[in-house]
Amino acid sequence: MDNFRKMPISVICLGSHPGIIQSMLDYHYCLGQEDIPIMAIIGSGRKQERYFWGHSEIVLPVYRELSTVPKEIRDSVTCLLHVQSARRVLSGLTEAFKTLPKLTLVNVFAEQVPEAHAITLAQLAKEHNITIAGPASVGLLLPGVLKLGAIGGTEYPQLVAARIFVLGDTAVISTSGGMVNELIHIVTGSGSGVSFAMALGGDRNPITTPAEAMRLAQTDSQTKRIVYFGELGGDDEYRIAELIKEGTLTKPIVAYIAGSVAELFPEPPQFGHAKAMAGSEAETAAAKKTALREAGATVVDVFMDIVSALGESSPATEPQEHRQITTRHKRLLVSRISGEVEGDVQLLGQDLLGVVNGNTVAGLYLSMLLGQPVKASKLIEFMDYTLRLLIDHGPYVAGAVNTAIAARAGKDLASSLSAGLLTIGPRFGGAINSAAGVWLEGVQSQSSAKDFVVSFRSNGGIIPGIGHKKYRIDVPDPRVVKLISTFSGNSNDDRFLSFARSVESVTTAKKGNLILNVDGTVAAIMLDLLESELYYTQERLQELIDIEFFNALFIASRSVGLMAHYLDQRRHDEGLLRLSDEDVSYIP
């Protein structure tokens, strides 16, 4: 345990259990620690979860797979909380052993883990020198250092009542998760303190056995005595007795073995834990008590006699100093873009004027849309050019027409702009995001351009970012030519633009106007720049596509064009637009 107290505390959670996770955060906050110990959660559904660090709300990132967690986090993790289902324990921990090089302590909360899995994990844990509390364990506690799991309580008042913020001299070892907390209260309530506490778990094959836990207590310099809770069933207590007799265990042990009532039944009953059943006379509580007493342990027959056996019976200790937690309220909305700090408006972690003075319009737009300060000059230059390039495409397109109609109907600016923006979709303005998805998929699949085009054709689909009514392969779009000549040559070898152009070479062989258009070019170059300038991974690029970041480029620019058409119509003030008979073909 001495080594565990010295290691940096960095936790990753396989699965989400808000009550347990919040209790761990509360414990470490109360200790006065400055660094948040929990680095990430592995789960599905959400991308993040909100918790409290003291009275401030924090966000913990959620990743779908352990392999997608950033390497710098994986390389720092020393502790793991496993709160997924029993059937996922073996696969989850096997992957964790391979991908978390500094992993040292694990708590497995799930019960009824298949016995073969538990046996396999015990062997793997030895090979990797990892200590595991569980399966079916509420965790491990190192007072003043670490709370891993539900142990000690899941509510702030429970943590305070348990008096577990200060290191003591008594180790608490229990096969029962519920009883380990009772034992902690008995120890601290008697005037002593806890050196460490460990719930081994009630499954038939706990990965850390009671005898192994006793060895941990024996070699721990902070532990002067041991309190142990065992149960009928199995032979763990005989292993402990052997360690005492051979002189390996020399520290005083106070033990209670539950299950004496089972001897009143004609057939041995099964108690709550999988292991708690006496299959023979030697597995009864009475036989185990005798073995421990003969070896030299202090064994009590009544649970509360542990208090007197400890040597002191003071009803309480002085309150332990710790950071206090009072009433806190979960906010309805979380913003990582802007907010007020002490009454001053901030954008992206900086004061408003500082951000305004230190950015161009394009730089600020890009930073706001990405949710992070962006200083990459080439990327900002591309953003500036894109905003100017997409600002308008004449009064003929659907968005401009809708805006003009609303304006001539006397609607206000916001309503008219909304009418135009609501037209944006897969047939107008939405192709940039779709094209980005196509290019990312193509690069990830590592398929040839020809196979990729064939797959689209077989599904009857149109490739976003490909095709133009006016321009052809022999009459190129000057905007595309300008984009490529100015913003290619990136450190990732322009792999997205290269893939898009290889697709173009296939499609134009079929028809001359199936060229790479502006939407497809903007999407490809933006992917290249995000990867080469900001080092975005493919996972982060996919997230941007999922949340329609690339469509935001079009909307940010075209909104100005639509407002211009609104103002233009209001200046002319030609009145309500109505179609004539010549504009409509009536075909009954």
What distinguishing features does this structure have?
17 strands; seven-stranded mixed β-sheet; Rossmann fold; 23 helices; 588 residues; alpha/beta; Cytochrome p450-Terp, domain 2
Describe the structure.
With 588 residues, the chain is of the alpha/beta class. The chain has two domains: 2-309, Succinyl-CoA synthetase domains (Rossmann fold); 431-572, Cytochrome p450-Terp, domain 2, CATH 1.10.230. Helices cover 43% and strands 13% of the residues. It is built from 23 helices and 17 strands. The chain has helices spanning 2-6, 18-30, 71-74, 89-99, 115-128, 156-162, 177-189, 210-218, 236-245, 285-295, 305-309, 352-357, 361-370, 377-389, 398-408, 413-421, 431-445, 449-458, 478-487, 495-510, 518-533, 538-546, 549-572, and strands at 11-14, 38-42, 48-53, 56-63, 79-82, 105-108, 131-133, 139-142, 146-149, 170-174, 194-199, 225-231, 253-258, 298-300, 338-341, 344-347, 350-351. The strands form three sheets. It has a seven-stranded mixed sheet, with helices on both faces. Helix 4 (89-99) runs parallel beside helix 5 (115-128) and helix 14 runs antiparallel to helix 21. The chain is elongated. The N and C termini lie far apart (87 Å). The model is unreliable at 313-317 (pLDDT under 50).
